[in-house]
Amino acid sequence: MPITKGFQVLVDEAMEEVKTYSVESVQARLSDPNVQIVDIRDPRELERDGTVVGALLAPRGMLEFWVDPASPYFKPVFADESREFILFCGAGWRSALATKTLQDMGMRNVAHIDGGYAEWKKQGAPTETLEARKAKKG
């Protein structure tokens, strides 16, 4: 059976429906307690490349389950409607799709970062290794 709608069409459609922030605009809000950056990348990417300082690590494969209060995997952090959850992935494709899915689930306080972690690093925004992150938590 041939694919009738490829990934790029899905990403393009999602991009038309989701809020997208530049790295610069997200950096300006890093100290805002009402902003939660969410890294949806695979654990192998996190180990290899590190993450955004202070990001919540929420693997893409579990995101819908962590957001839904009816799920046995629900994470209460996602119930905080006073926060804006800003997702990112490697290049901004998965995060666009994930943001669209969370909107489809009813969330309105969700957006993503244009260009993802690659753009974040390119612009010299703050990152940390997982080892440094674990050392801080102690």
Brief sketch in words of this structure:
The chain is α/β, with parallel strands linked by helices and 138 residues long.
Describe this structure in words.
This protein is an alpha/beta fold and 138 residues long. It has one domain (7-137): Rhodanese-like domain (Oxidized Rhodanese, domain 1, 3-Layer(aba) Sandwich). Helix content is 40%, strand content 16%. The chain has seven helices and seven strands, in the order H-E-H-E-H-E-E-H-E-H-E-H-E-H. The chain has helices at residues 7-17, 23-27, 43-49, 63-67, 93-104, 116-122, 130-137; strands at residues 20-21, 35-39, 51-52, 56-57, 84-88, 110-113, 127-128. The strands form two sheets. Strands 1-6-5-2-4 form a five-stranded parallel sheet. Strands 3-7 form a two-stranded antiparallel ribbon. Helix 1 packs across helix 5 (93-104). The radius of gyration is 15 Å and the shape is globular. 28% of the residues are buried.
- The strand order across the widest sheet is 1-6-5-2-4
Would you give the CATH topology?
Oxidized Rhodanese, domain 1
Structural class: alpha/beta
Main sheet?
A: 5 strands, parallel
Strand content: 15-25%
The tally of helices reads 7
Low-confidence stretches: none
CATH domain class: Alpha Beta
Q: If you compute it from the alpha carbons, what radius of gyration comes out, rounded to the nearest whole angstrom?
A: 15 Å
Count all strands and give the number. Answer: 7
Within CATH, the superfamily carries the name Rhodanese-like domain
Q: In sequence order, what are the helices and strands, one letter per element?
A: HEHEHEEHEHEHEH
Number of domains: 1
Percent of residues in helices comes to: 25-40%
The averaged pLDDT comes out at 95
CATH second-level architecture: 3-Layer(aba) Sandwich
Alpha-carbon distance between the two ends:
51 Å
Shape: globular
